[in-house]
Amino acid sequence: MQDRLSPRFGAKVFQFTVERKYYWDMLRLEGPLRLLPQPRGRLPSYCAGAAAAVILLATNLFLGHTQFCRHAVIAALGIALGTILQGVCLLTEEYLHHLVSRYHGSLPRMLRACFSGAPLLLGVVVVLVLWAGSLQLKLADWYVVAMTGGFSLLLKAFGIMSPTPVEISEICEQRKINVAHGLAWSFYTGYLKIVLPKLVDSIEQYHRHKGNSSTLRHRDSWRLHIVIPLSAFIPDKLEEADRRVRFHDNLPEIAIDRAGVRRRVYKHSVYAVLDHQGQPHHCVLEYATPLQTLYLMSQDSSAGLSSEERRQQVLLFIHTLQGILEESVECRNRYRLIVLDDEREQEGEPDPYFLSKTILKQLQQEEREEYPVAPPRDKLFKPEVLSRVPTLMISDDLPSPLRDPVEMNDPSLGPIHQWK
């Protein structure tokens, strides 16, 4: 208990807080990381609500209350009729061809899938019909309702009222059904979650085997540096992308039983990145292999992934992977994401050492990181020899809880320790 509440523990917590906040600031402010997409807000909904309110109020002023109510009911009934007919059309396809394969023969599930917000829609229709009865709509008014519903179906059939790319993207991001989400989670659960907790032990074992080698002598570089090119193009060898990035050695292999494979092997490679003076800087380095899937999908017409969509998926992959790793206590502070804006580099005059310069910049930032150091224990505590005779010792310190701390993660403030 004393170790947990000692100044050394407090300094470690503060150091961890500063490091994490520093890293999040780096992610927000520097280089191509500024391109990371942020979650979409509610501004379109607010704009739509404001525009609808202005239009309805203006129409009410010009037409008068009675005429406004009549035309509003006609328009609303027409839109509701079109929505119901659209659901019936969808229901026909689903019932005839997909009831068993997609819904396991469940009619309620199929109805919920075809009629979005069915209870609310039914309630709106009932209210509108009752309101129409009180207004005593004429036969010509019901014709207008039918025509509005018919035109709504035509617009849907020709794709004019289909969701826009922005709406589709928003739905996919909210429900986390993008390709990038799957790739990021697969990369984490199938690889990073396995190897990152063992990275420090692997490097220490490497030092023991090599006899305290000067390679990776700074603990600041004891992280897995993951290179993520925005083009998603990944060469098989890093030397092919930059001659100043040279393979140095492999860390000891990590063998575990995985998915029926006995002693499946995972390992990392150590690279020497040369600066402009030819001095080597060593780090554990590799590309994010799931990006190969995105690149190959964009090269295959049957996948239907354009180069622009691929770029958006890469950015979303970075954003998702960053969030996953920051929430993982096992992986946090054991990695660095190095985003490589190689597309912009290809547009201008190519720099043959662009990769090495980007990596060196990251390594230099890690070396410059400074953390507070715990004050000496003798300045905080004055040990005294206790008498053998029991005495009553009263402390001015506030009582401390006796339970373990629970970490509360806040990306903007760093980890906050709260006591149970």
From TrEMBL:
Its main location: cytoplasm. It comes from the Eukaryota. It is found in: Cytoplasm, Perinuclear region; Cytoplasmic vesicle, Autophagosome membrane; Endoplasmic reticulum membrane; Endoplasmic reticulum-Golgi intermediate compartment membrane. GO terms for cellular component: autophagosome membrane; endoplasmic reticulum membrane; endoplasmic reticulum-Golgi intermediate compartment membrane; Golgi membrane; perinuclear region of cytoplasm. Residues 71-176 form the STING transmembrane domain. It comes from Synaphobranchus kaupii (Kaup's arrowtooth eel). This is Stimulator of interferon genes protein. Keywords: Endoplasmic reticulum, Membrane, Nucleotide-binding, Transmembrane, Transmembrane helix.
